[in-house]
Write a structure and sequence with these properties.
Helix 2 packs across helix 4. This protein is of the alpha+beta class. The termini are far apart. The longest helix has 39 residues. An eight-stranded antiparallel beta sheet has the order 18-25-20-23-22-21-24-19, with helices on one face. It has a six-stranded mixed beta sheet with strand order 14-13-12-15-16-17, with helices on both faces. Strands 26, 27, 28, 31, 33 and 34 form a six-stranded antiparallel beta sheet that branches. Pfam families: CLCA.
C-alpha cells in the first residue's frame, strides 16, 4: 500500500488521461462554454501570473480566429484555466474557489513542457475517421511564450479537436499525402498539396514548396497553413479543391472542411451568426477531493454473490486510496442510507470505513430510493467528490430523465459499474458524459494456477482501480496471476520496468479462503530493500507495507508463508511521475456510451502507448473480449499500428476492428494486455505536423532496453442487438488509384489500382467486383457511375487491376475526379478510394441526326401552317403600314411650302414640325456648285456621287427669299476620268448644259427674283411611277414621278414636257457635246418647276428658287 512518506507526492502527481467523449463543451448564445485549459504539473509556479496572462491572450486570439473562420457562428465564450494544486501556495496565483465542477481529466487543452519529438508545436492526435474528435490539444509552454505565436494555430487545432477535420497540406515523400501532385493533362506541372480560395503562388526548391510573398489574396484554408498572415478562413463547398491528395479529401470523401464543420451537432440548430464578444476567463484549481461510492443493495444484488463482490471491490478501492483523500458511501434500495459521510483517509479511518462496508447487507427491496441517492450524489459532487455507482438495478424511477438532465446541468460525469444487461441499458443515458462499465456477471475461465481467470469480483476491483487512474494519478498494473498457495513458503518474482513513487502488491482469495492461514511475508527490492506483507483484518486482503522512499526498477521478489492452501489472485500496480513509465490507455469508438449498430458501423478498440510522451512502436497489444452471455466464448484480438481504422501510423495509437463478435451478447467488457513488450521510441525530432501525414517517420528509432507488462481494464461497449454472423464487413480500401493514360482523341481514361482483400483487408479473398464513379466541376456534388462489374487482374498478378472508361464530352473544359471501391459477394461496399483527377479540355460535340427525335407528322404540318399564317400576317401588316406611311407623306407634300420634283426617295423621313424643318439641312448636291450668297450654304460642296438627291419640305430658302442666286454654272463631275456623259437611263433623255463635258463652264445666267415672299400653292398633280424604274434593283425604293395637269397634259415645267419638246425640235447631242443654241435661257425659265435631277439640278417651285 502507499507509504506515508510518499503521500504528498501521490496527491500532486496527476494523470494525463485521454479525454474521449467526456468534455462538457456546449455552444450557446454566448459562444462555447465550459472549455477547460489545464496547466500540467510539470509547469513551475514561479511565473504563474505571466503564464496565466499569456494563456488568456492566446485563447482570445484563437477565439477571434475561430469566429472569423466560422463566419461569426462560434467563438470561445467561457474558458476555465485549471492550475496545479501546489500553485495556490504562491500568493500571486489567485484562484476562484467558488467554481467546483472542473476536473483535470476533462481538459480540452493541456499546457506543458515541449514535446520531446514534436517540440514547441501545438498538436492533437487524431485516431478516428471523418468527424471524430481528436485527443486533447497540447500547448507547449515555449509556444505560448514565443514571439511568433498566433492564435490561429490554436484555432487550427480546435478544428481537429472539436469537429474532426484534417490537414490540407502534404508531407514530402508520404505515400498517401505527398506535398505535391499532378493532374493528368498535357504538359502538367507539379502543384502544391493545398486548399486555397485562389491559386497559390510560389515555387519548388528541390522537393519543398516555397510560398511567394505575393499571396495577399489567399484567405483559406487555416487547415492548409497558419503561416500566411492573410489566411483566416476554411475552404467551402464552392472553393474546395478535390484533386489535391490531402488527408481531408482522403478521409472525408472529398468534402470540404466547411461542410464537415457545419454538419457537427453544434450547428444543426444553430444557424445564426453572433457578435463575437470577448472571452470570459476563470482561474481555478482541480476541485477533486475524493470519491462518493453509491452501492445498490436491492434484491438484484443477491444474484451470483454480487453484493459480496461489490463490497469487497469497494473495500479494496478504499484501502489503496492515498491518505488525505476523502470518501463517502451511500446505499439504496427501497430506502436511502448514508453509510459514511465524507471523511479524510488515514489508517484509522480506512479501517473504520472497511468495517462499515462489511456490515452492508443485501435487502429484498426494489430501487425506489434511487432518486434520493441521485440527489445526494449531486450534493457530494459539489463538494468535490467523484461519483461511482455500483448497481444491478432492474428499474429506475419514472422521473429518471429529470435526474439525467440535472447531472448534465451540474456537469457531473459519473462512473457506473453496471452488473447486468438491463442495468447497462437503463443507466447509459446517465453515463453519457462519464463512463459506463459493463461488468460480466459470469465466470467462464477455469480457476487453474497459471491461467487467466476473471470473475465479477476481479472485474469490479480492476475497473475501480482504472477509475482512479483516470481521475487522479496513473496506476500501471504490471502483474496479475492466478497462484496456488500451498502450505509453507511460496515465492516468485515480477519486473518493475520503471522507478516508482508507490508500489501496490496484494493478493486475495478466488475461493472462499477458509482453507488457508496467512502467517507472514515480505517483498525484496532489486537493492534488497524489504517491505513487509500484512493481512487487512477487515477483509481477506493481503498487501505490502513499505517504509522505503523509492521503488527501484528491476526484479522484485516476494516470499509468503501460509498454512493450508488456496487459489489466490495476485496483483501488482505502481505509480510514478507521469512522464517516466510506459503509459497505456484504451477506449472504443462508442460515442457517449450509446449502443452501436454492428450492421452499419464498425466496432473499434483503440490503445495509446507512450513513454515520456514519445510513441512506443513495435508492440502487439491483445484485447480479451467478454460478453454478457455465458454461452459466448472469450475472443482475443490483436491491435496493430497499421490497421485501416488508425489514421496516422507511428503516433503510438494502436487499433483493431472487431470482425467476429460473440453471437449472443450485446454488452461487452475487455481487458487489454501487453506482455513482455519492448518496442522502440523515436529519439529524434520531427519538424512536421504530427497529424499531416499517413505516418510520423521516426528519425532515430531507438529500441527500449527493458520489457514491460501492462493490464488495462475499464473498456466496454454495447450493441443494439446480438451479432448474427452475417457478412457485414466491407472490403478493404483502395489507396493507390491512378490514371495511367488519357486519350483525348477517343475521350477515354485508363485507370489502374491494387485490388483489396475482403473484410477490411483481413481476409485472404481478393475482391474482383468494382464500382467506378466520377464527379466533375460542371456538376459539383453529383457523382456519376461509370462502371459496375467484374474486373480481372492483369495477367501474372493477383491484385493489379486496370480498366478504361469513357470521359463525358462537353463543350467546357473541366476536371473529372474518379474514385473506385470494391464490393464483396454479400454486397458490402468498401470505402471509396483516393481521387484520381484528369483535366478534360473543351470539345465541340457534333450533332448526330440519328440522335435527333423526329416530330410527329401532324405536329410538323401544324407548325408549317402556323409559320405560313404568321408570314402572311406579317406581310399584310407591312403593306398596311407602308400604305399609311405613303399617304402621310403625300399629305405632307401637298401641304408643304415647296415640293421636290423629279426622282425622289420616298422613305426619307420628313421633319415632324416647322421648328425641326427650319433646322434641317439639305444634302450635298452631286456636283460642284459655286454660287454667290446662297440661302442654304455659302461654302463649296464636294460629292463623288452621281445620283438623285432630295430635299425635305420647309427649307430655309423661303424664310429668307431676298437672298437669291444671281449666277450659277454647272460643271461636269471632277472625278469622271473620261469626260463622258452620265449613262443613259431608259425612258429619260440626257441633257448637257454648258460648253462640253471637258470641264468648260457654261455661261452664267441670271434669274430674276419674284417679289413674292411666300410661294403660291403647288399645282394639282398626279403621280405615275415610271415602270422602267422597277427593273433596277437600286431603284426598288425609288419612284420617278411625272406631273400632269387635270386633263393629263404634261405641265410645261415637268421633265416629260422638256423631253417632248426635245423630240419635236429633234435635239440631239453634238459631237462636241454642247447644247444646241436654240435651247435658250427662256426654256430654262419656263422649266423653273422641273427637276433636272440627272445633273443634280433642282429648281424651285417658282422664280424665287434658283439653281443650287
Amino acid at each position: 500500500m502507499f507509504i506515508k512518506k510518499t503521500l504528498g507526492v501521490g496527491l500532486v502527481v496527476l494523470c494525463l488521461a485521454v479525454n474521449v467523449g467526456s468534455s462538457f463543451i456546449k455552444l450557446g448564445q454566448q459562444g462555447y462554454e465550459n472549455v477547460i485549459v489545464r496547466i500540467g504539473d510539470d509547469v513551475p509556479s514561479t511565473d504563474c501570473v505571466k503564464i496565466i496572462d499569456r494563456i488568456q491572450v492566446m485563447m482570445q486570439e484563437a477565439s477571434n480566429a475561430m469566429c472569423k473562420a466560422l463566419d461569426n457562428r462560434a467563438y470561445l465564450g467561457n474558458v476555465t484555466i485549471v492550475v496545479p494544486s501546489y500553485w495556490t501556495a504562491d500568493g500571486n496565483c489567485l484562484v476562484d474557489s467558488s467554481i467546483k465542477w472542473p476536473r483535470i481529466h476533462q481538459a480540452d487543452f493541456i499546457v506543458g513542457q515541449n514535446h520531446p519529438v514534436y517540440g514547441s508545436r501545438p498538436f492533437s492526435l487524431q485516431y478516428g475517421g471523418c468527424g471524430v474528435s481528436s485527443l486533447a490539444v497540447r500547448l507547449p509552454l515555449n509556444f505560448l511564450n514565443g514571439e511568433s505565436a498566433r492564435g490561429v494555430e490554436i484555432a487550427h487545432e480546435w478544428f481537429h479537436y472539436r469537429y474532426g477535420v484534417f490537414e490540407e497540406i502534404g508531407i514530402n515523400g508520404d505515400p498517401l499525402y505527398p506535398n505535391g501532385y499532378q493532374i493528368t493533362q498535357p504538359e502538367a506541372s507539379i502543384l502544391p498539396t493545398s486548399c486555397t480560395n485562389v491559386p497559390l503562388k510560389g515555387n519548388w526548391l528541390g522537393n519543398e514548396w516555397q510560398n511567394s510573398y505575393d499571396n495577399d489574396n489567399v484567405t483559406s484554408s487555416i487547415m492548409f497553413s497558419t503561416e500566411l498572415p492573410t489566411i483566416n478562413r476554411v475552404c467551402t463547398k464552392e472553393n474546395h479543391l478535390k484533386a489535391p491528395p490531402t488527408k481531408q479529401n482522403w478521409l472525408c470523401g472529398g468534402r470540404s472542411v466547411s461542410e464537415i464543420v457545419h454538419s457537427h451537432p453544434d450547428f444543426i440548430n444553430n444557424t445564426q451568426s453572433k457578435a463575437c464578444n470577448q472571452t470570459r476567463f476563470s482561474v481555478v484549481t482541480d476541485a477533486h477531493r475524493g470519491y462518493h461510492i453509491v452501492l445498490d443493495v436491492s434484491s438484484g444484488m443477491a444474484v451470483n454473490n454480487l453484493m459480496e463482490n461489490a463490497v469487497f471491490a469497494a473495500s479494496h478501492f478504499v484501502w489503496f486510496l492515498p491518505e488525505g483523500s476523502f470518501v463517502s458511501i451511500d446505499t439504496f434500495s427501497d430506502s436511502h442510507s448514508k453509510v459514511q459521510q465524507p471523511i479524510e483517509l488515514n489508517m484509522t479511518t480506512k479501517n473504520q470505513i472497511l468495517a462499515s462496508l462489511g456490515n452492508i447487507q443485501v435487502t429484498s427491496g426494489n430501487t425506489a430510493a434511487l432518486g434520493l441517492a441521485l440527489d445526494n450524489a449531486i450534493q457530494m459532487f459539489r463538494q468535490g467528490m467523484e461519483i461511482i455507482f455500483v448497481t444491478a438495478a432492474q428499474q429506475v424511477p419514472s422521473n429518471f430523465s429529470i435526474y439525467v438532465e440535472e447531472f448534465r446541468r451540474n456537469l457531473i460525469a459519473p462512473y457506473i459499474l453496471a452488473l447486468s444487461v438491463q442495468t447497462s441499458k437503463l443507466f447509459s443515458t446517465l453515463a453519457r458524459d462519464g463512463r459506463l462499465y459493463s461488468i460480466p456477471s459470469w465466470t467462464k475461465t477455469p480457476l487453474l494456477p497459471g491461467t487467466k481467470h476473471w470473475n465479477p469480483q476481479t472485474w469490479m476491483i480492476d475497473t475501480m482501480q482504472s477509475v482512479y487512474s483516470r481521475t487522479r494519478s496513473y496506476r500501471a498494473k504490471i502483474e496479475e496471476r492466478t497462484v496456488e498457495m500451498v502450505d509453507g513458503w511460496n515465492n516468485g518474482t515480477f519486473q518493475l520496468d520503471s522507478p516508482a513513487t508507490n508500489l501496490m502488491f496484494s493478493f486475495y482469495h478466488l475461493d472462499d479462503g477458509y482453507a488457508m492461514t496467512f502467517k507472514r511475508g515480505s517483498l525484496l527490492s532489486p537493492i534488497n530493500d524489504e517491505c513487509s506483507l500484512l493481512h487487512v483484518n477487515a477483509i481477506l486482503l493481503y498487501s505490502a507495507d513499505c517504509e522505503i522512499t523509492s521503488f527501484e526498477k528491476g526484479t522484485w521478489s516476494y516470499f509468503i508463508d501460509v498454512r493450508g492452501s488456496s487459489t489466490v489472485r495476485m496483483d501488482v500496480w505502481f505509480e510514478a511521475n507521469p512522464t517516466i513509465p510506459v503509459k497505456v490507455e484504451s477506449w472504443t469508438n462508442s460515442f457517449q456510451n450509446q449502443p452501436m449498430n454492428w450492421a452499419t458501423g464498425r466496432v473499434i478498440i483503440y490503445a495509446l502507448v507512450t513513454e515520456q510522451q514519445r510513441a512506443v512502436s513495435g508492440l502487439n497489444p491483445v484485447v480479451h473480449l467478454i460478453g454478457d452471455n455465458a454461452t459466448d466464448a472469450v475472443i482475443s484480438v490483436t491491435l496493430n499500428e497499421n490497421n485501416p481504422s488508425d489514421v496516422t501510423k507511428g503516433d503510438g495509437i494502436y487499433s483493431a476492428q472487431l470482425i467476429n463478435l460473440p453471437r449472443y451478447s450485446t454488452h461487452f467488457s475487455y481487458i487489454l494486455e501487453i506482455i513482455g513488450g519492448t518496442g522502440t521510441v523515436d529519439s529524434g525530432i520531427f519538424n512536421g505536423h504530427p497529424s499531416a501525414g499517413s505516418s510520423i517517420p521516426s528519425s532515430q528509432p531507438t529500441p527500449r532496453s527493458t520489457s514491460f507488462n501492462r493490464y488495462v481494464y475499464g473498456g466496454s461497449f454495447q450493441l443494439n442487438y446480438p451479432f448474427d454472423g452475417r457478412d457485414v464487413l466491407p472490403p478493404g480500401r483502395i489507396t493507390n488509384l491512378a490514371i495511367v493514360n488519357f486519350n483525348s482523341n477517343n475521350a477515354t481514361v485508363e485507370l489502374n489500382w491494387t485490388g483489396p482483400k475482403d473484410d477490411y483487408g483481413e481476409s485472404t479473398n481478393y475482391i474482383k467486383w468494382f464500382v467506378i464513379t466520377g464527379e466533375d466541376d460542371g456538376t459539383p456534388g453529383v457523382e456519376t457511375g461509370y462502371f459496375n462489374g467484374t474486373v480481372q487482374p492483369i495477367p501474372g498478378s493477383l491484385d493489379r487491376m486496370t480498366y478504361t472508361v469513357n470521359v463525358p464530352i462537353t463543350n467546357t473544359s473541366r476536371n473529372v475526379y474518379y474514385r473506385v471501391y470494391g464490393m464483396d459477394t454479400a454486397g458490402n461496399k468498401g470505402q471509396s478510394s483516393n481521387i484520381a483527377t484528369v483535366y478534360v479540355p473543351a470539345a465541340i460535340i457534333p450533332i448526330d441526326p440519328e440522335d435527333q427525335t423526329e416530330l410527329p407528322p401532324a405536329l410538323f404540318w401544324f407548325l408549317i401552317g402556323l409559320a405560313c399564317v404568321c408570314f402572311f400576317l406579317l406581310v399584310a401588316i407591312a403593306i398596311a403600314c407602308t400604305r399609311r406611311y405613303l399617304d402621310a407623306r403625300k399629305r405632307k407634300a401637298m401641304a408643304a411650302d415647296w415640293v421636290q420634283i423629279g426622282e425622289t426617295t420616298l422613305d426619307l423621313k420628313a421633319p415632324n414640325n416647322k421648328e425641326t424643318a427650319k433646322k434641317a439641312e439639305p444634302e450635298v448636291p452631286d456636283f460642284h456648285a459655286y454660287s454667290t450668297p446662297s440661302p442654304r450654304r455659302s461654302n463649296e460642296y464636294l460629292s463623288s456621287r452621281w445620283s438623285d438627291n432630295s430635299y425635305s419640305a420647309g427649307s430655309e430658302v423661303y424664310q429668307e427669299p431676298e437672298r437669291i442666286f444671281t449666277t450659277a454654272r454647272i460643271e461636269a463631275p471632277t472625278n469622271s476620268g473620261v469626260h463622258e456623259r452620265p449613262p443613259i437611263r431608259p425612258g429619260l433623255p440626257t441633257y448637257s448644259f454648258g460648253e462640253n463635258w471637258a470641264g468648260n463652264a457654261s455661261p452664267p445666267m441670271t434669274v430674276t427674283p419674284s417679289p413674292k415672299k411666300v410661294p403660291p400653292p403647288p399645282p394639282q398633280r398626279k403621280f405615275f411611277p415610271y415602270p422602267s424604274d422597277m427593273s433596277k434593283s437600286e431603284n426598288k425604293m425609288k419612284r420617278t414621278l411625272q406631273f400632269r395637269d387635270k386633263d393629263d397634259t404634261p405641265l410645261a415645267s415637268s421633265p416629260s414636257y422638256l423631253a417632248a419638246q426635245s423630240r419635236k425640235e429633234n435635239l440631239s447631242y453634238r459631237g462636241d457635246r454642247q447644247m444646241p443654241k436654240s435651247y435658250s435661257e427662256q426654256t430654262l425659265t419656263s422649266a423653273s418647276n422641273s427637276s433636272l435631277g440627272r445633273f443634280g439640278i433642282i429648281l424651285g417651285a417658282d422664280s424665287e428658287a434658283s439653281l443650287v
